[in-house]
Amino acid sequence: QVQLVESGGASVQPGGSLRLSCVASGFSLDNYSVGWLRQSTETVREGRACISGDNRRSYKDSVSGRFIISRDKSKNAVYLQMNDLKPEDTGVYYCATPRGPDCPYSYYGGIVYTHGTDSWGKGTLVTVSS
After folding, report:
1. Lower CB count within 10 Å: N or C terminus of the chain?
2. 31, 39 in Cβ contact below 8 A?
């Protein structure tokens, strides 16, 4: 069974840090791009960061310098280190892969509709509040 599972979401104060994890089962992420996106509306998710199959990283301007995306092939996992968190970072975060090697612009600079062909996890909630 093909599955992506996110974890690591929590409630933190502004300025805090979190590390989100995305672990795949049923298929290998090795040569696939993987992105982290935040829920915007019921069917729309906004790209935040993406790592390509050859480990090139791309970020939305608003998170560049604060978020770091990485992968561990031995664990079939991709991570999002979130630093200097702001209240506007609050939301449900999903990992996704288009099952191709290149990062679509939508994965880090645009939006993705959930009814497309991408593979999604079930999300993890990040709340940034004082």
Report:
1. N
2. no
